[in-house]
From TrEMBL:
InterPro entries: Isochorismatase-like_dom (IPR000868), Isochorismatase-like_hydrls (IPR050272), Isochorismatase-like_sf (IPR036380). This is Isochorismatase family cysteine hydrolase. SUPFAM superfamilies: Isochorismatase-like hydrolases. It comes from the Bacteria. Its EC number is 3.-.-.-. Pfam families: Isochorismatase (PF00857).
Length: 188
């Protein structure tokens, strides 16, 4: 049985403006919903992570290839609908929503403060995209000595081959990689 007291499920970038690019039917987000449900049932802390910026985008450098186009579009401020957590996995009372300013969930956010305050030592990662927030957060969390699990079916990427290589070959070097169903069994 997993040590749920010291475990947190990070639901990363499952926000309106990102989910809309990946939806391929009503079942697309089912693994995320199942992961959140299993975590809540077992008493695992659920933490939502989103990317969003202040009005005027002062956090975005024009040299940042990934984020500078978002500043030009102007639709990823923290108050915009695009940065709100998708309704299918809506946070409940007591579940923090962390705002980050770069790809990793740790970058510019208060995530590490929350994890320390709650004595979290094991992170379970899911999110959009596998090659973005999941990869960046996994690498940084591994360097910070967190125990890591990646829920491979609760990760989406625009490139299926990149997703496969990451979950089959790269992530297992630093994390346990399993399906949501496999992880849920460890919580029982």
């Amino acid at each position: 049985m997993a040590d749920v007291k010291h475990t947190a499920l990070l639901v990363m970038d499952v926000q309106n403006g990102i989910v809309s690019r990946y939806l391929q039917g009503e079942d697309t987000l089912r693994p995320f919903q199942e992961a959140v449900s299993a975590a809540r049932k077992a008493g695992v802390q659920v933490i939502f992570v989103r990317v969003g910026f202040s009005d005027g985008f002062p956090e975005v450098s024009p040299r940042n290839k990934m984020f500078s186009h978002l500043a030009q579009a102007g639709n990823m401020t923290v108050s915009a609908d695009t940065t709100q957590i998708h309704e299918s996995v809506r946070p409940e009372a007591g579940e923090p929503v962390v705002t980050k300013y770069r790809v990793s969930a740790f970058a510019g956010s208060n995530l590490e403060v929350i994890l320390r305050a709650k004595d979290i030592t094991h992170l379970v990662l899911c999110g959009i995209a596998t090659s973005g927030v999941v990869l960046s957060t996994l690498r940084e969390a591994a360097d910070k000595d967190y125990q890591l699990t990646v829920l491979k079916d609760a990760c989406l990427d625009g490139d299926p081959e990149v997703h496969r290589v990451l979950v089959d070959k790269v992530f297992p070097r630093q994390a346990d990689v399993m399906t949501v169903a496999e992880w849920a069994k460890t919580l029982a």
